[in-house]
Amino acid sequence: MYERILLTLDSSRLAEKAIPHAAALAKAFQARLCLLSVVPVISDVGAAGGPAMAVAWEAQVDNIEEYLTGVQQALKLQDVDAEVELRRGNVTEEVLLFSQKFDADLIVMSTHGRSGLGRWVYGSVADRVLRHAEMPVLLVRVSEDDDEQD
């Protein structure tokens, strides 16, 4: 049923709640698993925040790459092979574009559990992906309380 599973991660503990679900599905279906992170692009980094902002942004990219490699290695210990992909741009757009490029049969992501004003202010990547994806989306419901319990 599933041959290619895309798991979105942003290095937060809330996003990591989706890892066991994606790993179990990948094992059960012997599917390819891809770990995707999207780093938002800062428009005109030099003009917006000067060289210090550009350096901080590049450091964030390096941290995400290391994070994805660490998750990939942890999954390998569980006999789950995963590839990693790091994209830059609008998070929702990049998830949707890469899901097509990867030819994903399923997108797995956490909801991050925002509600009320937080959801209105920040929007919901999960909601937008769910509405616009051309393949099934598995949303792992988590709340900000789940992050405090870790």
Instruction: Give the class-level CATH name.
Output: Alpha Beta
- Number of domain modules: 1
Q: What order do the SSEs take from the amino end to the carboxyl end, as H and E?
A: EHHEHEHEHHEH
Q: Please tell me the overall pLDDT.
A: 85
Judging by the overall fold, what is the CATH architecture? 3-Layer(aba) Sandwich
Strand order of the largest sheet: 3-2-1-4-5
Spans of at least 5 consecutive residues with low confidence: 116-122
Q: CATH H level: which superfamily?
A: HUPs
* Class based on secondary structure composition and strand pairing: alpha/beta
List the helices and strands and how they pair.
Layout: E1 4-8, H1 13-16, H2 19-29, E2 32-39, H3 45-77, E3 82-88, H4 91-101, E4 106-110, H5 116-122, H6 125-132, E5 137-140, H7 144-149
Parallel strand pairs: 1-2, 1-4, 2-3, 4-5
Characterization of this structure:
The chain is an alpha/beta fold. The chain has one domain (4-149): HUPs (Rossmann fold, 3-Layer(aba) Sandwich), CATH 3.40.50. The chain is built from 7 helices and 5 strands; from the N terminus they run βααβαβαβααβα. The protein has a 5-stranded parallel beta sheet with strand order 3-2-1-4-5, with helices on both faces. Helix 3 (45-77) links the parallel strand 2 and strand 3. The longest helix is centred in the middle third of the chain and has 33 residues, at 45-77. It starts with a strand and ends with a helix. Mean pLDDT is 85; it is low at 116-122.
